[in-house]
C-alpha cells in the first residue's frame, strides 16, 4: 500500500488520489479532523498558512517517524483487544497514519483489526465504547432514516456502504448495535486492501433490538433493549434504509454483512436484481472458497468435474459456498444446476439434508433424495464414508467438529483431501491446521477462516521437517476487490458473471499453482495486487454484461490496471491547499463525516 505508482494521465478523474487536497479547516478543527490531520508532519508552510503554529511542538517529522512512534506505542499495549482499541483511537485522530501503520505491519495487525480480535471488540462494544463511529438507524424511527442518512454527504460523495443488522456477527451470534463495528471493520479492509476512499464510505447498523439475553440484561448495553423486531416492520425498516440510501447516494454500492440466516439471502435476492449490492457472507465467502477449492484441485490434479464436496454447517456461508461451487461445476461440465448440485452434500444439525429434513428455501436445491438414505446414518463421518468426498468445508460454528476420525476418514478416501475449517473466530474452527496435517501425514490441503501460524512437521522428502504455510480462506481476500471494481465502473448490478470473474482473479494468483507446498490462496502481504486483479476482472465482466455505467473505462488490460490504481486511496500525506469556507466543497470543509470531539486515553499522535 502506498508504494504503487500513480498515473498522472488519470489524475483528472474524480476519485484520483494524486495532487493537493483542498482544505478549508484551520487551527484546532484541522488537527482534530482525522482525514486532514497530519500531526507532527504538517510542513512549516502549512503550519503558518493553516494557523497551527503554537498548537504543535516545533519538530517536523515524516510519516515514517510517526509510524515508528505509533508502532512503539502499539507494542506496549498488553493484549490484542487493547491493541484494537488503540488502533481505533488512532483512526479517529489521523487516518493516513492509521492506514500507513496498518499497511506497514499488515501481517501482524490484520487479525487485530479484523477476525478474531474485532469479534472481541464487538462483544465488548458497550463496555469499551468511547465515541460513536457510523450511522445508527432505529427501527422505531423509520421516518427519520432519510434525515439520519443524509448527514453523511451529498449525492455523489458516498461510494461504499456496509450495513448489518447485527444478528449473526462473525461466529459470535447476535450482537445488536455492537454490530456497527463489523461495518466499520469491513470498511477498514476495503481501504486497506483495495484503496476504497475512506472518506467516501458509510458504515451502518440497523438496530432492531437483540435476542441476546446477556446484552438485554447488561445495564451498559447501548442498543435498543428489546427482542428483535421481525416480520413486516423489519422489512419496512430495511427497505426504507435501502430506498433512502439509493435516493441519497445513487452511486453507492451496498454491502450486506452478518445478517441472520432467515434474512441474509432473502434480502440479497430481493435487492440484487435492482441495485448494486452484495452479501459478503453468501457471495464473498462463496467466491473465496471456490478459489481455494480450485487451487486444491489443481494440486491434487483433479478438476471441478471430479469434485465431491461436503459442507458442514448449511447456513448463510455454507449454502453461499455450495451455490458458487454448484454454478462453477455447471459451467465447467456444461450441465444444469440441479445436476451439478449432485456433487455437493450439505450437513446441518439434523445430519445430511435430505428431502425429508425440514429445509429452508436456500437449502432445497441440495437436498438428497430421502429414499437413498433411508436407514443409513447421516452424521458427518458416516456421510464421508459413504460419499467419499475430496473436499470438506466447515461453516458450522461448532469447534472441533472435524475430529481425528473425521479427518482420517477424508484421507482414507482421497490422496490429497482439501479441508477448510472456516468458522470464525479462531476458537470456533472445526479443527486446527496442526491437527489436520498431523492426522493426514501432511497430505491435507488446508485453509482456515481466521489466520493461523505455519505448521512444522516431517512431511518433506524422506521425512524431512518442513514448515507449511496455511492460507486464510476469508471473504476479505475477495470482497474488497469486488467492491473496488463495482464502484469504479459504477456497476448498476453485481451479476453472477462478475462474481465468477472475481473467483478467477483470486484463483490465478494462488501460490499453490506454482508450488504444490505453498498456500492455496494469496496472503495479506499481496492483498492490494489481488484487489487490482479482482477489480480488473470484475470491471471487464461488468462491461461485457452491459452493467458498467462509467464512461471512459480503458479496454487495454495494462491501462485498465493503471486506471484502477490511480483511483485507489493510499496512506500518503498530500499537500494541503487552503480554500475559503465559502464555496468550498463539503469535503474541503471537513463535513464528509460526522466528527465528534476526541476522547479516550489512547491518543498517540496529534
Ligand atoms: N471464512 C469466512 O470467510 C467466513 C466464515 N464464516 C463463518 O462461518 C460460520 C457460520 O456463519 P454463517 O453461515 O453466517 O452462520 P449461520 O448461523 O447462518 O450458519 C451456521 C450453520 O451451522 C449450523 N450448525 C450449528 N451447529 C451445528 C452442528 N453441531 N452440526 C451441524 N451444523 C451446525 C447451523 O444450524 C447453521 O445452519 C461462522 O463462524 C462465521 O464466522 C462466515 C462467513 C465468512
Ligand atoms: C468473515 C466473515 O464475514 C464472517 O465470519 O462472518
Ligand atoms: Mg461476515
UniProtKB/TrEMBL annotation:
Active-site residues (renumbered): 114, 186
GO MF, one annotated term: metal ion binding
Requisite cofactors: Mn(2+); Mg(2+)
Domain of life the protein comes from: Eukaryota
Protein name per its UniProtKB record: Malic enzyme
Domain Malic enzyme N-terminal: 91-272
PANTHER family in alphabetical order: MALIC ENZYME-RELATED (PTHR23406), NAD-DEPENDENT MALIC ENZYME, MITOCHONDRIAL (PTHR23406:SF34)
Binding-site residues for (S)-malate, renumbered to this chain: 424, 474
Free-text comment on the cofactor: Divalent metal cations. Prefers magnesium or manganese.
